Amino acid sequence: xxxxxxxxxxxxxxxxxxxxxxxxxxxxxxxxxxxxxxxxxxxxxxxxxxxxxxxxxxxxxxxxxxxxxxxxxxxxxxxxxxxxxxxxxxxxxxxxxxxxxxxxxxxxxxxxxxxxxxxxxxxxxxxxxxxxxxxxxxxxxxxxxxxxxxxxxxxxxxxxxxxxxxxxxxxxxxxxxxxxxxxxxxxxxxxxxxxxxxxxxxxxxxxxxxxxxxxxxxxxxxxxxxxxxxxxxxxxxxxxxxxxxxxxxxxxxxxxxxxxxxxxxxxxxxxxxxxxxxxxxxxxxxxxxxxxxxxxxxxxxxxxxxxxxxxxxxxxxxxxxxxxxxxxxxxxxxxxxxxxxxxxxxxxxxxxxxxxxxxxxxxxxxxxxxxxxxxxxxxxxxxxxxxxxxxxxxxxxxxxx
Length: 401
Known about the structure:
four-stranded antiparallel β-sheet; disordered C terminus; 19 helices; 401 residues; alpha+beta
């Protein structure tokens, strides 16, 4: 039996690729599986990123996101995640949009959804293909493998930069010379020693387009992000009421923000993505705020069953929709906001109060606000109602301080 197993092992080893043939064969297989870019780097590639991550955390720029602060040393060192890793294969899938992501901002009564969330959940698609490619690598080159796609303590962007897929621009996102701002990233960790790629130089130059377009000034300096001011953070990660000083600036963005990505000059070389499972669903290209405001939990889950939007839940999503309704300037949407004044969620009720305070004359809404205040128990909603009764526009008052 032992001799037999030894013979099988020898036969398997004889079928493995020669070391010099692994990388080109891996690239060809990745392309066949639909990946747009591949690069290889070493496990120590995030050494410099560790310092930047710690400064980000020390400044509190992560807001109430727990995951960046959860064992940052482990996040900064792939070998603490898996001590046996010797090479990291970084992969990208192009999801370039077929239209200008900024055009939706001109249509105030419709919701703006970030390009990456208009189609199917990229986590599911990429992880499946990463596993398939990892199995191919193991079968044809040996070694052990692990795959990651935005679900573990892996610093994908610094690793992708070191693997030559692009560079981290002044907006802190990856920029590719071939695909612009539009690459989903995934990683394969392997015990194999694979040929490394060279990192790319930063090609941002003196350009400030991504910094200057940010509606909330979320970049205190080039290459630095204060997530607490970022619209993507506020509409996705932030669990409480949207801070008043940012509500008007959010406009009609109801899930994420693409402004700093869309304005990058390197997008002139970008290509439209051709992955059908990631293509924008028509219903999510420019959804009417009036329709979205009527979603209950069941209809929300049905509409976003295969979308990353589902993870924030109905209440946070409706909060975002109501902020957009308040910014729309269309009195016809007042009834949608009024219908949510008695919602079970205090988060929704508070946003509904703010939306109505923006759409209705103060005298018309103040009397109703007084009645609501008499019965409202939640402190954050009471605060919103009190501001209406006092005749204070929160955004204006805060801007005067």
